UniProtKB/TrEMBL annotation:
Domain VOC: 5-116
SUPFAM superfamilies in alphabetical order: Glyoxalase/Bleomycin resistance protein/Dihydroxybiphenyl dioxygenase
Organism listed in the record: bioreactor metagenome
Protein name: VOC domain-containing protein
Stored Pfam families: Ble-like_N
Amino acid sequence: MAHGDITHIDIPVSDLGRAAGFYSDLFGWDIAEIPGFEGYPMWQAPNGISGGGLAPRDDRFTQPRSYVEVDSIDDAIEKATRAGGSVAAEKQNITDSSWWAVIVDPDGNYIGLFEGVVNPS
């Protein structure tokens, strides 16, 4: 994927098993826990490209969140804050070669940022 591509969509759920059954039956999504990401079942759409995760719902995570791939999370956060945005979740590791963060745009929309490679080849 390239800078600016939507790479992942998290859906907040209160019951991971119930949600996995619902989305799998409704959309034909392949949903499974991947080693190293237990408790965070990931979904893959039939097109083999679209995907995301089912994440525990909490007071700060109540709506689906898209993650946009960026060349540099640090640069994207700096640019977003200069343009009137803010940071909801600082840059955090996913793997040794990938990171995520969440910004808030001036209208209050939460947008996830993704940088790196999850499965380097």
